[in-house]
Amino acid sequence: MVEDKAKEYQLVVFTIGDEEFGVDINQVREIVRLVQITYLPKAPQFIEGVVNLRGQVLAVIDLSKKLNIEAKARSDSTRIVIVEVGENTVGMIVGSVSEVLRLPFKNVEEVPSIVDTEIPEHYIKGVGKLKDRLLVLLDLNRILTPEEVQHVEKQVKNLSAKEAKDQEPQ
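Request: output the structure for the sequence above.
Response:
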């Protein structure tokens, strides 16, 4: 029997605090260890700064701050998930990445409107039901507002231009 892959989500699963989240694997470019992050002045408080990943300067957001979730202390399992959000590539700091899984559409439900959560409802695509746990599916395209994306792009361009100028021969 041939499986119909169009009837399932493929997700990268990660933790923030004690919560588990999933994002569409097609938006995930790579997962890297936590590296040195350069602070960005005047950035919103959830933007940690920027990193240089193989010559590309990327903004890094602390997903726990953006989602208003209490995070655990950073450790060896802390990761930066590099994702595509619209036409932008950004890094998201998460507690740990646990797995990649397939979740049938029939196992995903909308968040009941009576559920009061710290996470703004429009960030959530749905809740996946697994055997013994629930998985919050995030809509990455809604996590950053267009204004926030624009601010980050401007800061990254300014920093990239400064780095290029600093590396010019004197």
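Residues 33 and 79 are 5 Å apart (CA to CA).
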